[in-house]
Amino acid sequence: MNYGSNKKLFIRKLTAEENNELRKAIKTSTSSKTIRYAQVILASSEGMDSKKLSETYHYSQHNIAVIINAFNNEGIQCIYPKKHTGRPTTRTDNQKTQLIELTKVSPRTLGYPFNSWTLHRLKTVAIEQKIFEEISHMSVKRILDAAGEFEDV
After folding, report:
1. Labelling 23: which of 43, 62, 107, 140 has CA 20 to 30 A away?
2. Looking at the structure, do residues 75 and 20 belong to the same domain, yes or no?
3. SUPFAM superfamilies given for it (predicted)?
């Protein structure tokens, strides 16, 4: 796609349902990106060219073309944020079990100078005990939450 050409680029004709959904998204969405994309699409459908859209909505002409082409190809779904699954988990069930078992042992029994676990202490000890090569205290929290064990820490 040549987004930099001088060819006029407009949104295809909107259906009544698309028009209604775009207007609803502008009024009710909590995502600023969804609102702005919907505004760009509606303005384009009303005849505003990409140069004027760029000036009005503070997007580059390239980004305006991307939005218009996305709508023309994908439809209304292009205004909504895509789900990003993030990095896949690298924690094994065995590691998670070992972490949960660690919470059930008194830190003093293991030779530590404290009586109770915190997320940061669990993180440090889990790394020292070679349960994990690295782990954040928030990952410790997520593992314990998922197992229903967080209240005990």
Report:
1. 62
2. yes
3. Homeodomain-like
The answer to the question of residue 87 being in a domain is no
**Domain tally, the chain:** 2
Q: Which domain holds residue 132?
A: 93-152
Distance CA 18, CA 122 (A): 51
Among candidate residues 8, 5, 35, 7, the one with its CA nearest the CA of residue 21: 35
Whether residues 25 and 62 fall in one domain: yes
In angstroms, rounded to a whole number, what is the distance separating the alpha carbons of residues 50 and 12? 14
Only one residue has tokens 């609803």, namely 24
Start-end of H helices in 58-153: 61-74, 93-103, 119-128, 137-147
The confidence band for 152, taking pLDDT boundaries of 50, 70 and 90, is low
Name the strand (E) or helix (H) holding 108: none
pLDDT, tens digit (0-9, with 9 covering 90-100), for 45-94: 999 999 999 999 999 999 999 999 999 999 999 999 888 777 777 899 99
